[in-house]
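If your schedule permits, I should be very grateful for your opinion on a structural question. I have a record of one protein: its chain in single-letter code and its fold written as discrete structure tokens. Would you kindly read the sequence against the tokens and tell me how you understand this chain to fold? Thank you for your consideration; the sequence and its tokens are set out here.


***
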Amino acid sequence: MNKTRLGLLSTVTLGVFLLTGCGKSSNSSNQSSQKLNWMQPSNLMTLDPSKSVDTTSANTLSNVSQGLLTSPEGSKVVAGVAKSYKVSKDGKTYTFDLRKSKWSNGDSVTAKDFVYGFQRTVNPKTASQNAYLYDHFLNYNGVKSGKMNPNKLGVSAPNNYTLVVKLSKPQSYFKYLVTQTAFLPQNEKVATKYGKGYGTSSDKQVYNGPFVAKGWTGTNDSWRLNKNTNFWDRKVVKLNSLKMNVVKSSQTGLNQYQTGALDALSLTNKQQVDNFKNSKEFKKNQSVYSNFIEMNRDKVKAFKNLKIRQALSLAINRNQFVNNVMGDGSTVTKGFVASGLAYKNGKDYAETSHVKGTTDYNLSKAKKLWNEGLKETGHKGMNLTLTYDDNDVAKATSDFLQSEWEKLPGLTISNINIPKQQRIARMFSGNYDLCVTGWDAGYADPIAALAIKTSSSPMNFGKWSNKTYDNLINKSDNKDANNSNSRWNDMVQAQKVLSNDVGAIPFYQSAKPSVVKDKVKGLEYNPIGSGWDFTKAYIK
């Protein structure tokens, strides 16, 4: 049982019909000038929906591809390729009615493309880190373990425009799951043609969304999104092209924005935010991206000691970090799950499940626990590495944590700042001691984050394991799945277990402030999920 689970609603809705919003165009917009230069903070890693694990890839895929449903806001879904859907009375069968649409190469997008994409993601040969999202599908365990053929997965296409999904048990949040990149359709002909190269460059993929990717070789730091003339709703798409530019230096980005080389800039430090916060171009852009620190228990056995973990957490002055290092509106996290992600009866889950004192700064207590932990583990001191990305913010973060932790007696920290894709690869291979990372919950439910800390989750990089925690998540997913109050309480108690046992070190919740040229209109931003949506954007 590894996985993402939720289910705040127990009632089953039959024949849910969805309407897409209509895009507004500007009569004054000049089609020849509909070009946008956009900043990306990190490199694109993949255009393979089965293998997307980073925010840059997810945001790009969400603009070049479209799934059954889309989520313009965290708690809402609207029609995508599916015009409508209905749910059986027992909540275990979803039937989607698909519209007629095309891939960028002219092929028809059919239900078979979803069947293939779903099966490919769960197929163990694909080695998808997102396969766990399918855990409620009928025969998931058999397919994922390799004991059953992928064609036994609970998804079928009775005809070209009807998709049927069969679940092993009700999953009331399933409609949110299918908005994720892991549930995008995939063209089998194209995937077969390119084999291992599929999705590793822009010309080894096809697209069914509002844009098509161009110019990405797999390693370069810029690429384009061009209008997809085969997109079924192309009339709402006004931009002809977007140039995506990876900018890791805050000063370089500022210079490019001021000279007009960039139409948008991600603000990455206090000085930039202070300079722009009164500008009409300033966008605050809150997010539910929760940053935390993983401790590799397999590599560093001392991390199995609770006092060592507590000491590392209590030694961090988070308020000083968010105010003086970040200064961009980021906030201290109350626990593993971000504030503002999910509410019940008007109460924020993060507040309800908060354990007081677990994210407070208390250096004297940290030193005491550290010394006791060293004694219990037989250490006189420790030399540890801290791995993080190589952009300006990441380097400043690493330096701050190094300074904080080296206040603990006998602890030496060596920083390793490398490109994001290399850092993620090290996390999956277990080649790190301490690592700063984060999680961007894809839908508005606590389980979107809690699931990754279960013992069997492939995203549990620190290899933390707690039976009480696993049992609570399992209870929320099974016994209490259709009882919203009991399920909510299970998840509240689960976060409290995670906080008390320091299964990871909560750090801070990102703000994503930016400035966007006033000429850019129609942009949509979703703090829960895909981030920036360029579908209806235009230059005035």
